[in-house]
């Protein structure tokens, strides 16, 4: 198992343990206070544990070696795992909004106490810490599943913050608990949208960023000492593996062997410095007279 996969496993295990403990604490506080918002928040936390299980499964599947049937590897399992996390989050959001509407229709109010306040504050702090941890591991690994899991944690922290506001306003507005449940649901649906938007974009394919193109141009200039006019870039993201193809223009008088060596040097440089497999197509360049 490489370092990238180890980071993903570690993040998943930490999230599962912390979320299960938080679920027990928040569910107990919800039962004691009779708050649908806190109970819904507890189930949201438990769903984070399920998403972390998917993170671990996604890392395991994505780490499989390339085969003849799948020569580019299994890295896109990371995007597929992110889809599953979004699906779980959508189910949780639907349940929140359904239960909140029922509570509003029945004119039920919640009785909050010091337990609800303490548990909710603990949840906000712990869940935001988990979100930061997930985002940090995402920046290290570029695994989209970890980013999706981070948003799952962040949405839980935000929903707990909304619940905390409701605790202090509950004595003035009987409907605040049900209304906050609906607000939390909308936040979750937005998180689902963000996860799906980014995941689908990666699966469909994206053009290389301007920053990446500038790095490659500078790398070619440093390697060959001249601008070979790189153009026609295409990038293919396979999760754990990235393929890049582009064209360069060489003097038409350069022989095939020398042209091949130039292209190979550039490909090696990109592989070593950017961890990207590049394939370069050579075109003849005829200087204008």
3D structure, described in words:
This protein is mostly helical. It has 2 domains: 3-204, Cation efflux protein transmembrane domain (Alpha-lytic protease prodomain-like), CATH 1.20.1510.10; 210-285, Cation efflux protein, cytoplasmic domain (Alpha-Beta Plaits), CATH 3.30.70. Helices cover 71% and strands 9% of the residues. The protein has 8 helices and 3 strands. It has helices at residues 3-33, 36-62, 77-105, 114-141, 144-169, 176-204, 210-224, 256-274; strands at 231-237, 242-251, 277-285. The protein has a 3-stranded mixed sheet with strand order 1-2-3, with helices on one face. The protein is elongated, with a radius of gyration of 25 Å. The relative contact order is 0.12. The mean pLDDT is 79.
Topology, please?
Layout: H1 3-33, H2 36-62, H3 77-105, H4 114-141, H5 144-169, H6 176-204, H7 210-224, E1 231-237, E2 242-251, H8 256-274, E3 277-285
Parallel strand pairs: 2-3
Antiparallel strand pairs: 1-2
Helix pairs in contact: 1-2, 1-4, 2-3, 2-5, 2-6, 3-5, 3-6, 4-5, 5-6, 7-8
How would you briefly describe this protein structure?
This protein is mainly alpha-helical. It contains 8 helices and 3 strands. It has helices at 3-33, 36-62, 77-105, 114-141, 144-169, 176-204, 210-224, 256-274, and strands at 231-237, 242-251, 277-285.
